[in-house]
Inverse folding.
């Protein structure tokens, strides 16, 4: 599982011209599920993300977690994080989990984030989505 976590001042997801999810302040998380992933990986990444201290405190140091600042999380499925570009110019995606497994772990991850005390909304699995964000910092972290 790969999670690209972007600290944002706002982010949203639109499908077929309709905004289906939006947050003001927090994380936009692009989540890729690999063939070898299972619930224990989702548990670990959700817990780590909930406690990651990448928000500034009153002294300008990155000492606060998303829970400390009352931020929200927008999770977007992103199988292309498992692109294999080692051969040729067209990426292969054989390392990504099959859609049924990926969707189950994606939704499980969203639920684990909630269980870790986070306010979470998410994109639509398998849909063509337009994702808008204002990256704050910019500050981007990758968890695997």
């Amino acid at each position: 599982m790969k999670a690209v976590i972007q600290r944002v001042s706002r982010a949203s997801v639109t499908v077929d011209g309709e905004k289906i999810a939006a947050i003001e302040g927090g994380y936009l998380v692009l989540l890729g599920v690999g063939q070898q992933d299972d619930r224990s990986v989702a548990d670990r990444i959700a817990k780590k993300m909930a406690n990651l201290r990448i928000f500034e405190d009153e002294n300008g140091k990155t000492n606060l977690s998303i829970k400390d600042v009352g931020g929200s999380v927008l999770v977007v499925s992103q199988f292309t994080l498992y692109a294999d570009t080692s051969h040729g110019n067209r990426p292969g995606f054989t390392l990504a989990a099959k859609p049924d497994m990926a969707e189950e772990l994606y939704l499980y991850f969203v639920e684990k984030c909630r269980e870790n005390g986070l306010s979470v909304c998410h994109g639509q699995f398998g849909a063509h989505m337009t994702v808008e964000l204002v990256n704050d910092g910019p500050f981007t972290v990758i968890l695997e």
About this structure: The chain has one domain: 2-143. The mean pLDDT is 97. The helical segments are 39-51, 66-69, 99-115.
